[in-house]
């Protein structure tokens, strides 16, 4: 006969085999069912312990059962660890169609569940991404793209805020992958949603505002970021305190945005304050402090304070290398910036070249050869070779380094100060019998219209040992050009004074820049040695687009980089007020009427830098020029003060073939 146990003994036996949190009244009820038989208690307890599930475990078991069924019917696939699952697009579409047909009221609920899930799991925006960040971002981006396309019929506040979070996160990831314009667009939409639903003082609104303002300033070089980031500094100071890392970060971004206004000294002072605060709160080797130091090094470099900038950048690279390793994105950026600074000093050319080579290799492995950052490193290295120490060996090495499909020439043309020239824009240049050597005047440089003249004409000029500057308007839309329909209406501003067939264009527009990139490529295909991009000084006029000096500086940098891809020199057209800022990016300046307006001093820095100023004056009555007018133009005093060394031509306003020299 089997001996029964008492209540106390039965409870003791059951508790040994079941979790401590099992309610005693349930145990007693169980013991009564088992009639207090020891063997029955032991077996039942063992079975229950094995099969006992918490809510989370139950969900996990249910999930595994569901996945097993889906895999059995080939509806989903998974990796070996069953940690990542994928479904074919047709399966997703079929499921969506079934849901819309059978339970349409549930569609938006599940869409929100998907949106919230992706927004929750997408890696948060960061300035210091690691390998896991990119792995997770890469796997989730396709899902983010799909769910962001979902059109909710009546989006709730929760839906919109989840969307704002995902726009921020995916935008930051896209920025790291080189899609800067798309990233900026997402930051802006996120900011607008948060501002409307949460107000400007909410932490999420400040985050999205910071990302949008940062992208405008750092990538877009847009001065609109200045008041936005100034307000952000104020808000974060009030809400978080002046020494909060997010406040310091906003201060650093604001300081960098100030660069777009041209006030480099103010930017430097603010950046130094950001570095000091961050070092005191976080330490000098912290990633946020290093970011502030990097911006400080840049603004020092822009002011010509090379020694301090280079010393600081060396420290940044060393610390980043030690803390993050050579293949971390921040280390690659620091490495490239150091090489760029070293390339400005002949004594450190070789070191710059060695660092650039290593940077190309590392960026190629991390980013891929087609990424913008890798292309920048390739371009910088190639230019260093052909500009710094021109030689056939370096040119060959440069060609080997440069991306496939980019047309290159032996070396970048550097026109000399004082060289005679001719400019003809209203006529097609006609090559006389016997070749371009018989052209009158017989000068070494011709500036002619890019569109109206043929490659054969340029080849003839080159055969005669002459250089070709190709003119096109980079700052205006012209109603007679073949590509006039490529411009979007929203990118057109007011009509140019005195030129009824031209309108100013938005030089910040990606669309406009794409058109200009095609024009520069055409110049390369025709064999131009340099480009003469006209109407860059629209910021001085009532342009209807709000263009500023900072916009033009950014635009000149863009044009210069595009032309450099094909080994063409870029010239600056007028724009005396920004001479200092654009001087490093151009090889010469073409000025109109600085003697007439007594402002040649503005262009004298070009001559001091060994870069020519090609000056055009349009005296009244030309071609019948008064002797007094010619003396005034050919002088270097009075109204012509500052024009020493200028390559002067006297022309009619229509810029036909007539010319007079001093």
Write the layout of secondary structure elements.
Elements lengths: L6 H11 L6 H10 L4 H14 L3 H18 L4 E2 L6 E2 L2 H14 L4 H15 L9 H18 L8 H20 L3 H19 L4 H17 L5 H16 L4 H14 L5 H19 L4 H16 L3 H19 L4 H14 L6 H18 L5 H17 L3 H10 L19 E4 L20 E5 L5 H9 L3 E7 L2 E3 L13 E5 L2 E7 L4 H17 L3 E5 L14 H16 L4 E5 L5 H4 L5 E5 L11 H5 L4 E5 L9 H8 L12 E4 L12
Parallel strand pairs: 3-4, 4-5, 5-9, 9-10, 10-11, 11-12, 12-13
Antiparallel strand pairs: 1-2, 6-8, 7-8
Helix pairs in contact: 1-2, 1-3, 6-7, 6-8, 7-8, 8-9, 9-10, 10-11, 10-12, 11-12, 12-13, 12-14, 13-14, 14-15, 15-16, 16-17, 17-18, 18-19, 21-22
Written overview of the protein:
This protein has 662 residues and is of the alpha/beta class. The chain has 3 domains: 45 residues, no CATH class; 210 residues, Serine Threonine Protein Phosphatase 5, Tetratricopeptide repeat (Alpha Horseshoe); 239 residues, Aldolase class I (TIM Barrel). It is 54% helix and 9% strand. It has 25 helices and 13 strands. The strands form 3 sheets. It has an 8-stranded parallel β-sheet with strand order 3-4-5-9-10-11-12-13. Strands 6-8-7 form a 3-stranded antiparallel β-sheet, with no helix packed on it. The longest helix is centred in the N-terminal third of the chain and has 20 residues. About 3% of the residues have low confidence.
